Amino acid sequence: MLAAQEALARSKAGDAQVQAWVCLADESAVAQSGTGELAGAGFGVKDVIDVAGLPTRSGSAAESAEPARRDATCVAQLRAAGAVPIGKTVTAEYAYVTPGPTRNPRNPAHTPGGSSSGSAAAVAAGMVDMALGTQTGGSMIRPAAFCGVVGFKPTFGRVHRQGMHVLCDSLDTIGWFTRDVEQSQQVASVLLPGSAAPRPDRAPRVALVTASAIGDLSAAARKTLNDCAAVLREQGAHMTAPDVDADLQTLLHIHSQTMLAELARGLLPVVLGAQGCLLSPALRAAVDRGLAIPYSEYVALQQRRVQLSREWQARFGDVDFVITPSAPSEAPEGVRSTGSSLFNRIWSLLGWPALHLPTGCADNGLPVGVQWVARADEDHALLGWARQLHSAVRGAFLSAPERIRD
């Protein structure tokens, strides 16, 4: 039996509680796989990305149930490497804030995060080893953190978006969830141009960005970040703590306004169409706010964005990667909200690659971890550093769980 067939069987058997899947492929479709580095592997696809023969409904009844005629480019690339899509995973409505039915496999009473909730949960539950997601603000890093899996958001624009339902044109980025960093590198070798970076032969140069000016951390999240920095120092890392607080609120404001303006225009055909009444009140309100943003203001924000991006690229020019919070806390209780993306948005606005690395568990058993970020187009180097160092960071937490206690 192919790995994809086994993944399909696990998903059918185990999804009643997790509810990670919108629909699953037919067994006959999954029984066929090509050759390549991912031969036979099954993967999930967030339901904003097309898979031939399956509908793409973006978590909304406003979208057609007709099956897609062809694969999205990223799905086609993975097929060409021998992998097989076994189904579509749950997304928040139009990848915004209204959650779907997915529960956190670590504790069903807690949110799995969002908007890529189904993809993160399917990997965390062991149904598949990898799944595609997307990020506009924190839609990959946050669910990766809450579900305890590796989540990778590449540099903006480096994964082709043909076949994705794009709403925020300058923010939406396709990424993926995996069980470990090595698997993430395998996916990167297929979806990202260029080759994997050579194994670094020196200690890394690391910037610690606590981002405390924009939000507080739970005891577990704070300890996780601080102890990760301590372990990296023990591994020989040169650690700096650049003062970026003055820019953070500006970056968050630009992200918020950019997202609203682009989301509103991207959804306008739905809002004005016959199915507009099926949108949630939260989404309709977001569209109204976005349409109220003058075009001149949007242009001014993008000009300021470009300026800050250049300044930050130069400011972190001698840094291999940044460590910073993935989320304010472990997964919050309740499933009516996907949690806060506050600590992810600035990196999404800059378009830099971001990686969530799980490192252990808080006292309540929920996963915790740290976000690693690199400058634009340093994707392969970031994954290389993570593969080299993740075992040390994770091992320190797993061998000494008391270190994340307050």
Mean pLDDT across all amino acids: 95
Spatial strand arrangement across the major sheet? 1-3-2-4-6-5-10-11-9-7-8
Biggest β-sheet strands, sense, barrel: 11 strands, mixed
Overall CATH architecture: Alpha-Beta Complex
What fraction, in percent, of the residue positions are helical? 25-40%
Any idea of the CATH topology? Amidase signature (AS) enzymes
CATH class: Alpha Beta
Which class do the helix and strand fractions yield? alpha/beta
Whole-number tally of structural domains? 1
Q: Uncertain runs with pLDDT below 50, 5 residues or more?
A: 399-406
Rg over C-alpha atoms, rounded to the nearest angstrom: 20 Å
Number of helical segments? 12
- What is the distance, rounded to the nearest whole angstrom, between the alpha carbons of the first and last residues? 47 Å
> What is the molecular shape?
globular
Provide the β-strand percentage band: 5-15%
Protein name: Amidase
Region (Disordered): 97-120
GO molecular function, one term: catalytic activity
Organism: Achromobacter spanius
Helix/strand layout:
Layout lengths: L2 H16 L2 E4 L2 H4 L11 E5 L26 H8 L3 E6 L27 H8 L5 E6 L5 H7 L2 E4 L19 E6 L2 H11 L13 E4 L10 H16 L3 E3 L4 H28 L8 H11 L3 H21 L5 E5 L19 H6 L3 E8 L5 E7 L5 H21 L7
Parallel strand pairs: 2-3, 2-4, 7-8, 7-9
Antiparallel strand pairs: 1-3, 4-6, 5-6, 5-10, 9-11, 10-11
Helix pairs in contact: 6-12, 7-12, 8-9, 8-10
Organism: Achromobacter spanius
GO molecular function, one term: catalytic activity
InterPro entries: Amidase, Amidase_dom, AS_sf
